[in-house]
Structure prediction request, 83 residues.
Amino acid sequence: MRFDPQTIIVPAGQPVSVTLVNGGALIHDIVIGEGVEQPVRIEGAGKQAAQGTFTILRPGTYAYLCAQPGHEAAGMKGTIVVK
Prediction:
């Protein structure tokens, strides 16, 4: 129960394309609620991949996590560094 990588660095104001590759059997997602105009959620079923795009306008450090019950507490969280 982890993201790889747990820290990503992206440019401010540029669209970022993300592919969530779920190698496990459970549903996982990536949720970004800070720094974006609208919350972002990319969900992938077990053994599936899912894609999404987001843009963060301001430099800073923002969190992302898996919002499935218990997954964040188990370590599925990370950081987006926007430069």
Summary: The first strand starts at residue 7 and ends at 10. The two ends are 27 Å apart (CA to CA). The beta strands are 7-10, 16-21, 28-32, 40-44, 49-54, 60-65, 77-82. The chain has a mean pLDDT of 97.
